[in-house]
From TrEMBL:
Source organism of the structure: Flavobacterium arundinis
Gene3D superfamilies: Alpha-L RNA-binding motif, Pseudouridine synthase I, catalytic domain, N-terminal subdomain, RNA-binding S4 domain
Matches recorded under PANTHER family: PSEUDOURIDINE SYNTHASE FAMILY PROTEIN-RELATED (PTHR47683), RNA-BINDING S4 DOMAIN-CONTAINING PROTEIN (PTHR47683:SF2)
Pfam families tied to this protein: PseudoU_synth_2 (PF00849), S4 (PF01479)
The protein, known as: Pseudouridine synthase
Biased composition (Gly residues): 1-18
Annotated keywords: Isomerase, RNA-binding
Keyword RNA-binding: yes
């Protein structure tokens, strides 16, 4: 009677219960309880034994996509979970120190003045070649006010763009700061031209008319204020009486004023005008000198009009009007 320990006709005690496939005849009988031998390929045929069914590998769960900017805070199934953006703590940043509207870094101040680049300005600062309000500053990143006085390598500079304005000055305007009922300052005439701190080159009294240059270029102001500067100015002078020819020749030979000889480049009668109208060419821009020349010969000067300044003329510039100089005119002034 069958004890129930065998399956599907498998005989013998201790059988493995596995179904055995076809096998090569063996010379020796198989011992009871041993499993069937592994089928082998017949060397006389191309037939292969049946392959064992392949077992599919379990698929791993798909990793979640972590979006840019999200943090990971835990792992699930071996993969990090995306941290919700709402849970992200805001980064703690130090509040930026705001500069006042009238403050600027020293190297930018120097760069804006046109002296050099910011990088080169740092080199000058570190070398001790920059002064602020008379004191040497070597600290990089130093902040200054627009009202501070900055000396760069011995030269006073301003952080403004260099601007040059030519005015045809009318009467009853003066370059002095004295207040009078019948005198107004020339700055009124160019007030809307620029926000820069411009100033006139030289002085003019209320009765003198003609060309006057305004600029914030302190180097140019200093250049044309020197007594030995080489630029020519031409004046149209009106006298109270005719200029004698012998006096004209004496003026052309040079005039002594305060013990110093003043050289006159050219003096002549104005063609087509009365002998009271004189043209005078010289290098000084001091209008007082022009008046003193004729007064030394007992003539009263009624009017002085500067019609040319360092090659600039009044062409297309009516009385009381102004204009900006062209780039070429600026170059010419700097090269004089």
């Amino acid at each position: 009677m069958n004890n129930g320990n065998t399956r599907g006709g498998a005989s013998g005690r201790g059988g493995s219960g596995k179904k055995s496939g076809p096998s090569k005849p063996m010379n020796k009988a198989r011992k009871p309880g041993t499993s069937a031998a592994k089928p082998a390929k017949d060397k006389y045929t191309d037939e292969k034994p049946e392959d064992a069914p392949k077992t599919a590998k379990p698929r791993s769960p798909k990793a979640p996509v972590v979006k840019k900017g999200q943090d990971t805070f835990a792992k699930k199934d071996g993969y990090p979970r995306a941290k919700p953006a709402a849970d992200k703590k805001p980064s703690e940043k130090k509040p930026a120190v705001k500069k006042k509207s009238d403050e600027i870094r020293l190297n930018k101040y120097i760069s804006n003045s046109g002296m050099c680049s910011r990088r080169d300005a740092d080199i000058y600062i570190a070398s001790g070649n920059v002064k602020v309000n008379g004191k040497v500053v070597t600290e990089l990143g130093h902040v200054v006010k627009l009202t501070d006085e900055v000396d760069f390598d011995g030269v006073r500079i301003t952080p403004e763009k260099k601007e040059y304005i030519l005015l045809n000055k009318p009467k009853n305007f003066t370059t002095s700061g004295d207040e009078d009922t019948d005198m107004r300052n020339v700055m009124e005439l160019v007030r809307g031209a620029t926000k820069g701190k411009i100033q006139p080159i030289g002085r003019m009294d209320k009765n003198t008319t003609g060309l006057l240059i305004f600029t914030n270029d302190t180097d140019m102001v200093r250049k044309f204020s020197q007594p030995n500067q080489k630029s020519f100015k031409i004046y149209h002078v009106s006298l109270d009486k005719n200029l004698k020819f012998e006096d004209l020749e004496k003026i052309a030979a040079g005039v002594y004023l305060d013990g110093h000889k003043l050289f006159i480049d050219e003096v002549s009668y104005i063609e087509g005008e009365a002998k009271t109208e004189i043209g005078l060419k010289l290098r000084t821009q001091n209008v007082k000198v022009v008046r003193a020349i004729f007064e030394s010969f007992k003539y009263d000067v009624l009017r002085v009009d500067r019609v040319s300044f360092a090659g600039l003329t009044k062409k297309n510039l009516p009385r009381g009007n102004w204009r900006f100089l062209t780039e070429q005119e600026i170059i010419n002034l700097k090269n004089i």
